[in-house]
Design goal:
By secondary structure, this protein is mainly alpha-helical. The protein contains 4 helices and no strands. Helix 1 (5-32) packs antiparallel against helix 2 (39-64), helix 1 runs antiparallel to helix 4 and helix 2 runs antiparallel to helix 3 (70-78). The longest helix is centred in the N-terminal third of the chain and has 28 residues, at 5-32. It starts with a helix and ends with a helix. The relative contact order is 0.15. InterPro entries: DUF3817_TM (IPR023845). It holds the Pfam family DUF3817. This is DUF3817 domain-containing protein. It is a multi-pass membrane protein. Residues 6-89 form the DUF3817 domain.
């Protein structure tokens, strides 16, 4: 998976999606319950860093892989849907891998 640029992007896609889910469903409840008030700051910083890396990597792939404009736009909006990154990876990138594997 990490041998190609697309594979590294898919890993970043998963990490960014996981950080978003942790922020929404772990950090916010911990803060609101008063158990760990700094959790949103910590998870928010992690999510923000991964989101910026995700966007930069996506723009890089858009230019090098000659993607149509709709793929980066879809990836941008899907990144704000909890678990959206995982669903997109499953339905789009895995099918791309299968079609490339069949072509070899």
């Amino acid at each position: 998976m990490l041998h190609s640029t697309l594979g590294r992007f898919r890993l970043l896609l998963w990490l960014q999606g996981l950080s978003y889910v942790l922020l929404l469903f772990v950090a916010f409840p911990l803060k609101n319950a008063g158990i760990f008030p700094q959790s949103v700051t910590w998870f928010g910083n992690l999510y923000g860093f991964l989101f910026l890396m995700y966007m930069l990597f996506m723009v890089s792939l858009y230019t090098t892989q000659k993607w149509r404009l709709r793929r980066p736009i879809a990836l941008f909006f899907i990144s704000f849907i909890p678990l959206g990154n995982f669903v997109y990876d499953f339905f789009v990138f895995r099918k791309m891998d299968q079609s490339q594997g069949a072509a070899k």
